[in-house]
């Protein structure tokens, strides 16, 4: 029969919870708990506080809603403890408060993270087929023309402080004016920043240079910490190998006429003309005589096929074209026509 005069020191309860109590202390504690409902409630209250104060917390696995509800419940319950337990409960609360602080901070941080987490942004990617020009309107009403073989990646909605897109190949932009939300085009090497502007970017992956042509407004072109500003009628030429940037005054027409289906050549060297035709029609020119590079050519084409353009060139320049083979190129195994150029 349990001894009704048993008195249990709080240290025994703590040793029991820490699993360091002796068999005799455990026996006495169990007898004391069985003496009265008040003793059992007191022990349970101490054990609850102990368990809350010494959890193995993995913040990432916390159910924040449930955890906060439990904390509020525990605070409320503790406030109802009988007066004679106040000293010990207050002591335990202080321990619990110290140990719970990191967990509470983790809970609040996770809730804030969830509340302020950036929404996932979906992107569109558009590629213009070879031999064609594609046009589209962006979510901010800006308009873009993509030259043949060019790609533009942009978000389905502009939700941040900037309107940012990525491109490769050649694109002409008419940017909707919004000074509070700059429009940024990333080409890989360069970053072109505008607010309300019309400009052309030529940045093919295989080319040794990138060319930005400004038609209206103004843009800033940056390569790491090197920043250049363009005015209408100016063109920036960036050499990838040397990372140098040079600005010149030009006639913008021949650099943007492609968006209207026009190829405009203005006394351009044949090398640059062949490079242009390679980009538009996905062909490969092989010059069989280096002296061919000394020739220049002036013409405007709209709607002509590649063969028609080559026929016109052969009429006014002493050169001959010969198609030798069609090769597979790239991971997509695209047919690439190879054209050899001979001097007559």
What does this entry look like structurally?
The chain is an alpha+beta fold. It has helices at about 10-15, 25-35, 35-55, 65-80, 85-115, 255, 270-280, 305-315; strands at about 125, 135, 145, 150-155, 165-175, 185, 190-195, 200-205, 210-215, 220-225, 225-230, 235-240, 245-250, 260-270, 285, 295-300, 320-330, 335-344. Pfam families: FecR, FecR_C. One of its GO terms (molecular function) is sigma factor antagonist activity. This is DUF4974 domain-containing protein.
Descriptors:
344 residues; alpha+beta; Jelly Rolls; Phage tail protein beta-alpha-beta fold; 3 domains; 32% helix
Please sum up the structure shown.
This protein is α+β, with helices and mostly antiparallel strands and 344 residues long. It has three domains: 36-116; 123-256, Jelly Rolls, CATH 2.60.120; 261-343, Phage tail protein beta-alpha-beta fold.
What is the fold's blueprint, element by element?
Layout: H1 10-17, H2 23-35, H3 37-53, H4 64-78, H5 86-116, E1 123-127, E2 134-137, E3 143-146, E4 151-155, E5 163-174, E6 183-186, E7 191-194, E8 198-203, E9 209-216, E10 219-223, E11 226-230, E12 234-239, E13 244-249, H6 253-256, E14 262-269, H7 270-281, E15 283-287, E16 296-302, H8 306-316, E17 319-329, E18 334-343
Parallel strand pairs: 5-6, 15-18
Antiparallel strand pairs: 1-4, 2-3, 3-5, 4-5, 5-8, 6-7, 7-10, 8-9, 9-12, 10-11, 12-13, 14-16, 17-18
Helix pairs in contact: 2-3, 3-5, 4-5
């Amino acid at each position: 029969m349990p001894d009704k005069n048993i008195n249990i020191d709080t240290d025994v309860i703590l040793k029991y919870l820490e699993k360091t109590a002796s068999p005799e202390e455990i026996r006495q504690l169990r007898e004391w708990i069985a003496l009265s409902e008040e003793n059992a409630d007191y022990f349970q209250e101490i054990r609850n506080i102990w368990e809350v104060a010494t959890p193995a917390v993995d913040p990432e696995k916390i159910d924040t809603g449930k955890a906060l509800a439990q904390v509020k419940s525990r605070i409320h319950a503790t406030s109802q403890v009988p007066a004679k337990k106040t000293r010990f409960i207050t002591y335990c609360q202080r321990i619990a408060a110290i140990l719970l602080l990191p967990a509470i901070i983790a809970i609040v941080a996770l809730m804030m993270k969830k509340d302020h987490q950036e929404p996932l942004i979906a992107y569109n990617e558009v590629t213009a087929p070879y031999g064609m020009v594609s046009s589209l309107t962006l979510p901010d009403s800006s308009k873009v023309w993509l030259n043949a073989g060019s790609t533009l990646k942009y978000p389905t909605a502009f939700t941040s402080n900037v309107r940012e897109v990525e491109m490769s190949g050649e694109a002409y932009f008419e940017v909707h004016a919004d000074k509070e939300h700059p429009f940024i085009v990333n080409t890989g090497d360069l970053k072109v920043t505008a607010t309300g502007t019309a400009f052309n970017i030529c940045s093919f992956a295989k080319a040794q240079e990138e060319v930005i042509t400004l038609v209206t407004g103004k843009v800033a072109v940056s390569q790491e910490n090197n920043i250049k500003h363009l005015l209408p009628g100016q063109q920036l030429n960036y050499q990838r190998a040397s990372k140098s940037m040079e600005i010149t005054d030009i006639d913008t027409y021949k650099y943007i006429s492609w968006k209207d289906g026009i190829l405009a050549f203005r006394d351009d060297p044949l090398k640059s003309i062949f490079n242009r035709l390679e980009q538009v029609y996905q062909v490969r020119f092989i010059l069989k005589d280096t002296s061919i590079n000394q020739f220049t050519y002036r013409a405007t084409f709209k709607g002509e096929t590649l063969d028609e353009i080559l026929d016109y060139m052969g009429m006014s320049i002493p050169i001959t074209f010969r198609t030798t083979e069609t090769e597979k190129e790239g991971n997509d195994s695209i047919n690439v026509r190879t054209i050899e150029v001979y001097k007559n």
